[in-house]
Design goal:
The complex is a heterodimer. Chain A is mainly β. Chain A folds into two domains: 26-74, no CATH class; 75-153, OB fold (Dihydrolipoamide Acetyltransferase, E2P) (Beta Barrel). Chain A has helices spanning 2-5, 31-38; strands at residues 43-47, 53-54, 69-73, 77-86, 98-105, 110-115, 125-133, 136-144. A five-stranded antiparallel β-sheet of chain A has the order 6-5-4-7-8, covered by helices on one side. Chain A is globular. Chain B is of the alpha/beta class. Chain B has helices at 28-42, 62-70, 86-99, 114-117, 132-135, 145-159, 163-177, 191-196, 224-227, 260-271, 288-297, 306-310, 328-331, 339-351, and strands at residues 10-17, 52-55, 76-78, 105-112, 199-201, 204-205, 215-223, 235-244, 280-283, 364-371, 376-383. In chain B, the strands form two sheets. In chain B, strands 3-2-4-7-1-8-11-10-9 form a nine-stranded mixed β-sheet. In chain B, strands 5-6 form a two-stranded antiparallel sheet. Chain B is globular and about 50 Å long. The chains are: A mainly beta, B alpha/beta. Chain A binds chain B through residues 2-3, 11-16, 18-22, 25, 27, 30, 34, 56, 81-88, 90-91, 93-94, 98, 100-102, 110-114, 122-123, 133, 139, 152-153, and chain B through 60, 122-124, 127-129, 131, 133-142, 146, 149-151, 153-154, 157, 198-203, 248-251, 255.
């Protein structure tokens, strides 16, 4: 990876020279997430001391600072906490309009994702889906499981 | 009036804008130098008097690059990076440094040619080391507007805030800009104009968004002894505070509450005032929704009531809470980091030198900067006393 060749004391110097990491990354802390993703399995961290779930991954519990955390399979269900329809073209990967949402897992943590078919509104129940992408593991995407009517506009 | 928590009074004694709009006959460092020297001359000071330097967004190690350019070797240096509101945080830091006698003359400044250089990006800002490269970039949420759209959408869902209420904020900013000869856009603007402008990320339209211009400014902070030499009225720094909550938008604890709740409380309590004491407000208006939530988080109205609060024109000229009095980032200028220009405008209002847009008898001003994806907040209370 490019990251390895960066001057170790001032890693920010290499930021403008590297592309965003889109594939399985050279990141020991997050690797279990992406390994599970290759099996289309959503995993998040659970603290064995206080029972809290967290995402994105850290090597300790944000709630109680315990180091006793493990990866668990998530339900893959949740609720749309907020959503927007992107109507400008910023990337060759996705053509507008597309819906980006913050999904709140039933376990508690939130993640940014997309809503398949742009068919979701805040408060809708959602179920995980997976979006394939070239050269990397699939990434989580969600679809509304109880369509509450017209899509948000 | 005194600031109960600061033993040594601290003043802003000079302010200046860099050239604004589209700047082709200067570079960023020469723009900084122009503003710095003008602000220092207001204070009866020169570059050689500066012993505290507060700079960011002028390249790596901002204060170091600018220090060399201006010939300043500081004994107090600060390149704090909390986004566009860093300059309000700089006033906080400079206030404490001057009060503690770690420096006597603090120079704060910024200059950008983001418009002329077309350097503004809409995709990932953050770089490969941040978790966002793995967990957020793949979703192509435009930066930063997509995050502010998520915030606005949640505020609307939770409190019934409407697009028209947000548009009222853009209209108020424009009505101030019409009184400011330096404002980038001065055409009349209606709520209908905002609502019929292009939708960028629902529910935010093009005219819910700030400008992209070149510009910058400089601010000089010093102690009471040096303030006596100032050519213009010295403006007291009564209080300041800062905070931040998140880097990734999905990690923001509550999309309807910003770090301004903490920075505002800190600044107001240091100053010993309440929102009712504020004569002019300079809120960071990167987007209409930012102003609305800032009003709530700073305590000008209750959480969730920002929409109704702005509906009656109270932010506009003649209103009971004159806000964005330069025309703000929405209509005056927004050079990428707006915070320094908010300070310049507040000082000019409190000195009574704001011309056609002057708010009568403005004695206390509140300046509120934010940064990132509504990630950071820094608040400053200023007084003409």
């Amino acid at each position: 990876m490019e990251l390895v060749v960066c001057f170790p004391l001032l890693p920010q110097w290499c930021w403008p020279m590297t592309e965003p990491v889109k594939n399985v990354v050279d990141d020991a802390i997050t690797a279990p997430f992406w390994e599970a993703a290759t099996r289309r399995e959503l995993v998040i961290q659970k603290c064995e001391s206080c029972g809290k779930y967290q995402f994105y991954p850290r090597p300790f519990c944000l709630q109680c600072e315990s180091d006793n955390i493990r990866w668990v399979k998530a339900t893959g269900t949740g609720t749309i906490y907020s959503a927007t329809v992107v109507r400008i073209d910023i990337s060759a990967e996705m053509q507008p309009p597309y819906m980006v949402a913050i999904v709140e897992f039933d376990e508690g943590p939130r993640m940014l994702s997309t809503i398949r078919g742009n068919d979701g509104r805040i408060g809708d129940r959602v179920q995980i889906d997976w979006r394939e992408r070239p050269g990397g593991p699939p990434i989580p995407e969600f679809r509304a499981v109880r369509n509450s009517g017209a899509s948000e506009s | 009036m005194s600031s109960p928590l600061i033993a040594e009074p601290v003043y802003i004694v000079g302010v200046a804008e860099t050239p604004l709009g589209e700047v082709r006959d200067q570079n960023e460092y020469s723009m900084f130098a122009l503003a710095a020297r003008e602000a220092l001359s207001e204070a009866g000071l020169t570059l050689h008097d500066v012993d505290g330097l507060f700079v960011n967004y002028m390249g790596e190690e901002g204060s170091v690059q600018v220090g060399e350019y201006l010939g300043i070797q500081p004994r107090y240096a600060d390149s704090t990076d909390v986004g566009g509101g860093s300059f309000e945080a700089f006033v906080h830091h400079a206030m404490l440094a001057v009060a503690a006698k770690r420096c006597d003359v603090a120079l704060i400044g910024y200059a950008s040619r983001q418009r002329t250089r077309r350097s503004r990006k809409r995709s990932s800002w953050w770089g490969a080391l941040a978790p966002s490269a793995q967990f957020e970039d793949p979703y192509n949420l435009p930066v930063p507007i997509g995050s502010y759209a998520l915030i606005a959408a949640r505020h609307m869902y939770q409190y019934g805030t409407t697009p028209s209420q947000l548009a009222e904020i853009a209209v108020a900013a424009r009505s101030w800009a019409q009184l400011n000869p330096k404002a980038w856009v001065r055409d009349p603007l209606t709520v209908e104009d905002v609502l019929s402008s292009r939708m960028i990320c629902d529910p935010l339209h093009k005219l819910d968004c700030c400008l992209i211009t070149d510009g910058g400014g400089a601010v000089v902070v010093t102690n009471r002894d040096r303030a006596r030499d100032a050519a213009k009225k010295a403006i007291r720094v009564l209080g300041a505070g800062e905070s931040h909550t998140h880097w990734h938008i999905a990690q923001m604890p509550d999309l309807t509450v910003s770090a301004g709740e903490v920075s505002g409380r800190e600044a107001l309590s240091m100053a010993g005032i309440t929102p009712a004491d504020v004569d002019i407000l300079e809120p960071y208006d990167a987007f209409t929704i930012t102003v609305l939530m800032e009003l709530e988080d700073l305590g000008f109205c209750k959480k969730g009531e920002g929409g109704a609060f702005v509906e009656t024109g109270r932010l506009a000229p003649g209103g009971d809470l004159p806000s964005m009095t330069s025309g703000g980032g929405l209509s005056y200028n927004h050079p990428g980091a707006l915070g320094v220009l908010l300070l310049v405008e507040a000082v000019r209002q409190l000195r009574g030198e704001a011309g056609a847009r002057q708010v009568p008898n403005a004695r206390i001003g509140l300046v509120h900067g934010i940064g990132g994806l509504f990630s950071t907040s820094a608040t400053v209370v200023l007084a003409n006393d």
